[in-house]
Amino acid sequence: MSTLIGCSQQNASIATSDLLLRSTLVKDATMPLQSTCQAEYNRIVSQQTPGLTPQDLLRSRALIGNQYRLEKVMETLSSRERPVVAVVAGGSISLGHGLANPDQHRYSNRLENWMNEMYPLSPESTTNQDNNKGQQRHKVINVASHGADSCSMAKRLNVMYSDLESKLPPSSDEPDLIILEFAVNDYEGQDHLVQVRYQASVFFEGFMDITLCSEVVIHSLLTRYKNTAIMFLEMQTAILPRKTGALLHMGVATHYQIPVISYAETLFHGFAELIHTLERMDPTSYSFADSELMLGSGDNVTFLSTPTSSALFPYPHGCSPCQPQNIISQFRQGGCKSICTFVDRSNIVRDRKLKCKANDIPSGRKECFVPYLAPDAVHPSAVGHGIAMDLLVHALASAQRSSCEGEGTPYQNELPMTTFVAKTSNELKVRGDFLVVNDVARIFSRWDQLKPVGNPTGFERYADDLLKQRMGWIATDAAGGSKITFPIDLPPGECYVVYVAILKSYNGMGTMMVEVRDYGDKKKMSEPPKHSTKKKVDGLWQSPISVWNDVQITEDDVAGCTGYCEVDITTDPAISGRDGNKVKILTVSARRCSRVQN
Fold first, then answer.
1. Of 88, 86, 85, 84, whose CA–CA distance to 444 is shortest?
2. Residue 27 predicted with pLDDT over 60
3. Gap between the Cα atoms of 385 and 419, Å rounded
């Protein structure tokens, strides 16, 4: 920490543009060690977004954690002997949703380009000699998926491990770095009733379940990959009441000493101050006067081939012109969303009507757009993705600088002797070892489709959210009696625990009876089932949130499924007083039983 503080003090006297944009220094044998280390840091962060300050970068280090593995990543990059492989797992943010050129502007692709530009593999390296000189490159494997959260990943770790084995270069038997971007989706996925739900609950009903999923992911990754560096990348939305999973991630990260990089801390403290400033100036449209454009705040700097400018606060924290060319064509007509629109959609101003349309802005004033958001409140713009990459690079470069200056981490973090929220380490092991995961839509790389046996009655497969992205097997008949059956076909003779993932929400949901019929062997389907397990499941809860929720149907201590079994779901009649009778099935999965007594 003393090194970080020292750097902040040292850099405070240097012009931001020189520090973060154009400083390309080379090592000199005559330079003191600290100067040499700082020069290398300056070189590899020289492409940072204009205007990011030392304070911004300091804020981004939400949890330093154990730096040993990050230092090893940089050691491997610096050696230029073999390709470094990073993996990004996350939701639609990591997919680059809304970007016109995601392969160019997405933070994962920028990180890959950065590694290859700053640390190109040596033509004399063993790797390149074995692979047609110069053909090998550092790479980032993006396994993100729309709506994915920590529980999605926990259930599909075996799928990911299998998929990565085929994608790693011969010189690597494990990734060097894994970046987890689940903060937004770990609190709330897409609501099935409205596009954005205005939440107030932090410790909602499913909070502990998602915390457990996060711990399962970290424990499994540390167990499987002994040397891989792991980082949380914490994003945030511009809908102010909407919470994220940052709190639960911080608990898991602290327990396992995983570094946390916070895009939210870097940008959204300034976002709140900008709103307050605009509100004092124009509480109706949150606009600013032409005269308030800050000359010299980025006007002479070109970023993403576009001259930057800013009003009220320095770039990228102030108001900047919309850049529609970087928005995907299907959203481009809607343009960028303004601060006024974000405040209005946050539903926090109730004493006046806001006027956020362009033709409502008073003459001589301009709408305020922040450069790191564009088509919506959730997904970063091309600039936002650039900043996310900058923060990751800063974390890596800082780890290298500390190691270079002799202040590196002397030991690698091992698994702690206790768990965080799991009851036992065995619980973490079995919850990260699913053998069957059949999904209604693609999540991560491989897709094992959720297909019913025969023809369902009253269930249809479709997307019920406004963006038509969240597929499910859905029944809505108020009379009940809708029926669908899914198979699970595993080797006979073992005990398996069966789960059904459903949509849990605060309104319009119904109840269902889930029955698991165990035949043991598919050849014995003509005979009566060996065992039957029934469980009543309710899709309604009190939390004002709509999320994927995994329901365990059979137990570890009872052989409810021993090979081939069928999961039969029948909806009940609508309950009096409820506004709807929706049942939405998302996933059917199974893992081995854990009969370990603790």
1. 88
2. no
3. 34
